[in-house]
Amino acid sequence: MNRLQVELPGLSLKNPIMPASGCFGFGREYSRLYDLNILGAIMIKATTPKPRLGNPLPRVAETEAGMLNSIGLQNPGLDKVMEEELPWLEKHCSVPIIANVAGFSEEDYVEVAGKISTAPNVRAIELNISCPNVKTGGIAFGTQPEVAHNLIRKVKKVSRVPVYVKLSPNVTNIVDIAKAVEAGGADGLTMINTLIGMKLDLKTAKPILANKTGGLSGPAIKPVAIRMIYEVSQQVSIPIIGMGGICCAEDVIEFLYAGASAVAIGSANFADPYICPSIIDRLPGLLDELGFNHITECIGRSWKTQ
Amino acid sequence: MNRLQVELPGLSLKNPIMPASGCFGFGREYSRLYDLNILGAIMIKATTPKPRLGNPLPRVAETEAGMLNSIGLQNPGLDKVMEEELPWLEKHCSVPIIANVAGFSEEDYVEVAGKISTAPNVRAIELNISCPNVKTGGIAFGTQPEVAHNLIRKVKKVSRVPVYVKLSPNVTNIVDIAKAVEAGGADGLTMINTLIGMKLDLKTAKPILANKTGGLSGPAIKPVAIRMIYEVSQQVSIPIIGMGGICCAEDVIEFLYAGASAVAIGSANFADPYICPSIIDRLPGLLDELGFNHITECIGRSWKTQ
Amino acid sequence: MIQKEMCTITNHQQIASNIFEMTLQGDIVLLMDEPGQFVHLKVSEGIDPLLRRPISISSVNKESRQFTIIYRVQGRGTALLSKKRTGDVVDVLGPLGNGFPLDETGPNETALLVGGGIGIPPLYELSCRLVSKGIKVVHVLGFASKDAVFYEEKFMKLGTTYIATADGSYGRKGLVTDVIETEGISFDTLYACGPIPMLKALEDKFPDKKVFISMEERMCCGIGACYACVCHTKFDKEGSSYKKVCSDGPVFRAGEVIL
Amino acid sequence: MIQKEMCTITNHQQIASNIFEMTLQGDIVLLMDEPGQFVHLKVSEGIDPLLRRPISISSVNKESRQFTIIYRVQGRGTALLSKKRTGDVVDVLGPLGNGFPLDETGPNETALLVGGGIGIPPLYELSCRLVSKGIKVVHVLGFASKDAVFYEEKFMKLGTTYIATADGSYGRKGLVTDVIETEGISFDTLYACGPIPMLKALEDKFPDKKVFISMEERMCCGIGACYACVCHTKFDKEGSSYKKVCSDGPVFRAGEVIL
Ligand SMILES: Cc1cc2nc3c(=O)[nH]c(=O)nc-3n(C[C@H](O)[C@H](O)[C@H](O)COP(=O)(O)OP(=O)(O)OC[C@H]3O[C@@H](n4cnc5c(N)ncnc54)[C@H](O)[C@@H]3O)c2cc1C
Ligand SMILES: Cc1cc2nc3c(=O)[nH]c(=O)nc-3n(C[C@H](O)[C@H](O)[C@H](O)COP(=O)(O)OP(=O)(O)OC[C@H]3O[C@@H](n4cnc5c(N)ncnc54)[C@H](O)[C@@H]3O)c2cc1C
Ligand SMILES: Cc1cc2nc3c(=O)[nH]c(=O)nc-3n(C[C@H](O)[C@H](O)[C@H](O)COP(=O)(O)O)c2cc1C
Ligand SMILES: Cc1cc2nc3c(=O)[nH]c(=O)nc-3n(C[C@H](O)[C@H](O)[C@H](O)COP(=O)(O)O)c2cc1C
Ligand code: FES
Ligand code: FES
Q1: Which helix (H) or strand (E) element contains residue C80?
Q2: Distance from CA of A97 to the nearest CA of D (A)
Q3: Catalytic site residues of A?
Q4: ipTM, 2 decimals?
Q5: How does pLDDT run across D143-153, given as a tens digit for each residue?
Q6: Shortest CA distance to D142 belongs to which of D115, D181, D167, D169?
């Protein structure tokens, strides 16, 4: 028995650990550091129909226990991802790929989802309706339940693989959005994307990021992520892939307790590029210490009656 | 000329530094550590019509660069605040007092605001429509623009002093709320209150706080506060008292740059009970280093054209 | 009076499994008058961790301007503290709270001091002070297991000392209350510090005695301003009357607060 | 190959106002082949600060498995680094990026090395390597003022060295470009590292020469995965073609990227 095995729609995960979208490119760079096959899955960088250069620099700023980014969905575009990145990944690892799908209109999402879901190693798509760093699209789809609902229905029609929807924490009522997304046919949720934040330069008085605002990630946002996953997991019946500030195996367990079924690691890759393998190594020992046989016993334990 | 002097509705501040509500009680305890007269003002603990014991313990949990609290508006009640706390403050210091007014219904707010604004040292009230730690009232008033608007109109009718409204960051659109509050007649805004968060215990799998969720404060939330103040200050014409993670004089300047006219210091008092006096001491030197004559030159500098 | 001072570490050593003894020097010591008071420590510069850590004062030497704390490495804060070296400085706020009353026990009377785990440290200064007033002291100290035992000899020098371990690996097996019972220890005043179940058992067992207990709660300010550490009083279980562990306690008369 | 290693500090000293020189030991040194590469340092355990700090490798000694970095205390990260003592360990990721090409200058040709402030460190290893290939080197080093000057003698041992300070408190007053002009320095290849305006001025001044520049950008991953440090290419100003400073650079041929 593999104590770390988790089964989710479209995803048979040998462990619940995967790098978060945007923090791991398309896998090539980290493959120079370790064998990608040890991962549970890989969430690749957002893909849009056309290539995108993203926002002007500076695009990142450090904050207390966190960081801001305003990359702005830079990516080589759907064609190149289909022709180069995904085949490269297929050749170099057999791990399920979750394709992060972004856009500026319903048509964009539908186009990318329809095509990218035909790639043999893409086992699920992650619909990014929560990017705070682009002016149109992105987060605009993720803050209005009805808009999100309609988008998901359309995407579900074209996608050949299960659709996970990435939620924005920048909302008054996350449960409303989650329910609308579930009703729209989503197979799972991923949460949370970044909180919108800003940092000013002491000398110039101006925002450090050229885009002014950016998305706040890292340990600073972990309590918000835990709270939202705790609330949403009790109100929907589709599984959640949790993220937001995870830095160690103990954090992974906290996310599972809250109600996530698997987790993604974002900013922590920057502090320690070997963070995913270290966490995977540590999990069995931690399960022993906590008295669990199987990692799935942790899921939702904060609110489930035992 | 006092380089730190700031004039706000009802408040003539000899410096823009004040302790935030809930982190300084009613001033008695800190008066054992330093002379309260050095402060710009004091925001006292939330006051409700009747005494409140607050939420069960544990009520606080530490998080990365932040903390969660679920005190739950514990306070001795309006009568005792009027008869004991405010007179004590009047006797021991001549600093303007900002009374934090909380409640569970419109009537509660109106009752407390009407009475407390008659106290001679209460120069402004801070309407707390953003407490995340009580089941009814509190944040419920702070997330719906119309509800907030109506409440403020009623409170404005009874208050003898200017009314500042404390905004919750747990909303999709902070500018909408701020505009509704301004239209309702608010004289100023205070922002931000805490983000809703949660922390789970690794051993029990349950929330550490007895109240389950709590309000996240401290440096972790600073980028969110800066972003919201930056956005709101450009859209309203009433002044803002900023707060959220301020730990040093540099942070104060960042809040002023963003658009705040004065600031409040909350959680940092716990790390260093002398934080307010240290910041006040440091400000003139910092103004020199940055080349400002007067602190008001910093206000809104991130977006004002110079 | 409360003071904040950067105190210098003059001694720091591990004295049992996960248990460290640290001696600090500074003028703040001159303010330390009541055994049972605590200090609030910032274990690192900066924001990680953000909050101070409350630790009891376990002994005080005004002449050398030194005081000692004994702490268990529990989480991140105490782990960081344990890495400090002699000569480093620590940011100390204190002394905080109200200690054990010394005048509740008369000369020639017997005081029973009962401690569990890291509740034991403040009893050491208390015992020294009681003994110097001519009071007879008996100690019953409970530990998890043999490797957690500390200060046995120091307490033995002051009075009869019984050690109990939960797993029986040292001293008597069982709880401190078992020891008091089987040994038939008689006393005039009881001073206790340790886990809540232990305090509760003692309160229940000796309803007619003078019993003083020291409480622990999660704290922020440590000085009574933030309402983090509030507990109900027995007198008013549901109402708005309350005590703050940090400033009204940590020592209370048994029955004063609800455990 | 890239490696992560806890390297031990074998030497650490202040060499100018706010400027520190640190020597680290570890097997990672065996991978350091190109002058101009950098390491990505975690300056503290834990989350404060969260991100690594990119610092150029300024000299390498494979025999003793040691390399040296020179850094200026800028903000919190470098301030924490400056407090480390000999014997402490530092978490090093590296070597990262592509360095200066050595084969673009032939033997008996002249290389001009121009550095500004903390852009100077990587030029030291570069100069050593060029000299060992029989290339003649000339250095023009710009500093803010006299108290910021470092490594003057070390560079002088390798070749003619001009120092310029912005305030004229030492060497020539003015910019490095002024010095090159007034001294009429001739050269075959130019290698530069320093502030963007300096790099721009050099690019503009010598459009027909072989010029290599080293760039700085805010970084997260340091290995090319996060798109934090992307810059446009001259070839495609608005389009989607780009270079990553961390993995395609930090050294670029002049004209390759938009400054
Ligand atoms: C009045 C008082 C006196 C104390 N005296 C001692 C002593 O002499 N020796 C000793 O070893 N311990 C003592 N404690 C307990 C000590 O404060 C905690 O063990 C310590 O705060 C744990 O910090 P940490 O960072 O290692 O653990 P973490 O679990 O990482 O701490 C996280 C947060 O929870 C708080 N916390 C965790 N456990 C406790 C606890 N038991 N009590 C209060 N807050 C807690 C921490 O202060 C911190 O804010 C005392 C507590 C109080 C209230
Ligand atoms: C390839 C490369 C090589 C470098 N080599 C050297 C060197 O040899 N010696 C040296 O002194 N400095 C060098 N720097 C600059 C050095 O990285 C920054 O001075 C340092 O990161 C500042 O960190 P801090 O915490 O002290 O400052 P803070 O201002 O507190 O840093 C906040 C954040 O901004 C980033 N940051 C701030 N300034 C810079 C900068 N100039 N470049 C990149 N990121 C920055 C930090 O990395 C951090 O993420 C190099 C930078 C790069 C990109
Ligand atoms: C540099 C950077 C780039 C990101 N790019 C994307 C992206 O392209 N698509 C997306 O859905 N999320 C993106 N995110 C958000 C992360 O996937 C993740 O949701 C968030 O960072 C919270 O997790 P963390 O705290 O572990 O970083 C990005 C985050 C960072 C830091
Ligand atoms: C322990 C605690 C109690 C608080 N109580 C109140 C309160 O009674 N009324 C209120 O408006 N805000 C209350 N707050 C919120 C603070 O006033 C402030 O808005 C928030 O903590 C953000 O500032 P900080 O990061 O500097 O702490 C409380 C915060 C803390 C930490
Ligand atoms: S810790 Fe703040 S009141 Fe006790
Ligand atoms: S720092 Fe991540 S791509 Fe360069």
Answers
A1: helix C76-82
A2: 16
A3: 131
A4: 0.96
A5: 999 999 999 99
A6: D115
